[in-house]
Each structure stands twice: as C-alpha cells, then as structure tokens.
Amino acid sequence: MCEAVEEDLYAVLGASPSDSVQQLRHRYQQLALQYHPDRLGGGSSSEAESAVKRFLEADAAWRTLSDPSTRRQYDLQRRARELKQDWPVDSTVYLEDMTWEQDERVYTYSCRCGGGFNVSEEEVGEETQRRRQDDEEEETEEEEHSGVVVCCDTCSLSVCVTWSLHGNTQSFGCQ
Q1: Following CA atoms 7, 10, 14, 17 in sequence, which dihedral angle do they give, to the nearest 10 degrees?
Q2: What pLDDT does 175 receive?
Q3: Quick check: 31 and 54 in contact, CB under 8 A?
Q4: How does strand 106-110 pair with strand 116-120?
Q5: Could you tell me which of 149, 118, 145 has the C-alpha nearest to residue 131?
Q6: In terms of DSSP H, where are the helices of the chain?
Q7: Angle, nearest 10°, between helix axes 68-83 and 45-66?
Q8: 87: CB partners within 8 A, 6+ apart
Q9: Could you tell me the CA-to-CA distances from 151 to 90, 107, 131 in Å, in that order?
C-alpha cells in the first residue's frame, strides 16, 4: 500500500509546475552556480558531498523539465501520483469483532449511522489467499495481517476490516 515517495522535480529546482522553461532555466542556473563542485571552497567533505548531491539532483531535474516531451510525460506521471490515493479509512475493525450471518454468509458490523459494513466469506478467503501467496514469494515468517476496506451501505464512512493471516479463519465462519 505504501509506495516510495519520489522527489518532486519542480521542488528540487524551487519552481512551480506553471513556470515557463525560461523560469526553470533561471532557477537551474542559480542552483548550478551555488552548488557546482568547481565553485565549492575548501569546506568540509560532508558539506562538499551534500553540495554535489544537490547539484546532481538539480541537473537531473533540469534535464527532465527542459525538454517539452519529457516534461509533459513527467507532468502526467506526477498528476497520476497525486490522484492515486488510498481510500480514507475512518477506523479499523477486527474480523473477530464482526457478527457472522450464517444465512447470508457475510460478516457484519454496525455503523454509527445505523447502516452496516459487510464483508463476504468469499472476500475474506480471496484476500487471505492472495496475501499468503505474496508472503510465500517474500518468504516472511512474521505475524501478518490482511484486510479490506469496506464502505458503509448507508453513509460515506469506511473501515478497514483486518484479520490474522496465520489464524484459523474457519473459526470465524469461513470454510
């Protein structure tokens, strides 16, 4: 769920996505003059390393943003990252705290609005199987939990229903 945070190239240059190429060039030139390895004095090695790193970041940002084609592609990727968000979760509910409805073969949990959160036996089984396969590929031995985000059937609240992957889901009603 969590993804590595990628540094914003506009932020590296101290610029805005709405800046023109000329404005970006000006920002890049300022940073290049400030951090270029040839312009560094006899400072400490950690300061020099930091300045070189900053210069290389600014140079990479400029190379991407100076070309209209790569800038357009970067802007599209950046926008896609901004739009991709995890569903807002109001709380976490443990599967064992939910009520098992044998007739409907679903777990239910009451929402504060009077509606309910429902997770089917099939959803629990599929998510458990998927996570176990992922764990086998990663060869982890730690206690893992699985979960799904469930929306209330009446209001806009959502909860993350979670359960132990290594526990016996049959005891909760799954077979």
Answers
A1: -150
A2: 35
A3: yes
A4: antiparallel
A5: 145
A6: 9-13, 21-35, 45-66, 68-83, 121-138
A7: 100
A8: 149, 158
A9: 10, 13, 21
The predicted model scores a pTM of 0.47
Q: Give the separation between CA 145 and CA 163, rounded to whole angstroms.
A: 5
For residue 161, list its beta bridge partners.
93, 148
Give residue 108's pLDDT: 95
Torsional class of 14: left (φ above 0), alpha (ψ -120 to 50), beta (otherwise):
left
pLDDT computed for residue 41 by the predictor: 67
Q: Given this model, what pLDDT does residue 6 score?
A: 61
Identify residue 59 by its one-letter amino acid code: D
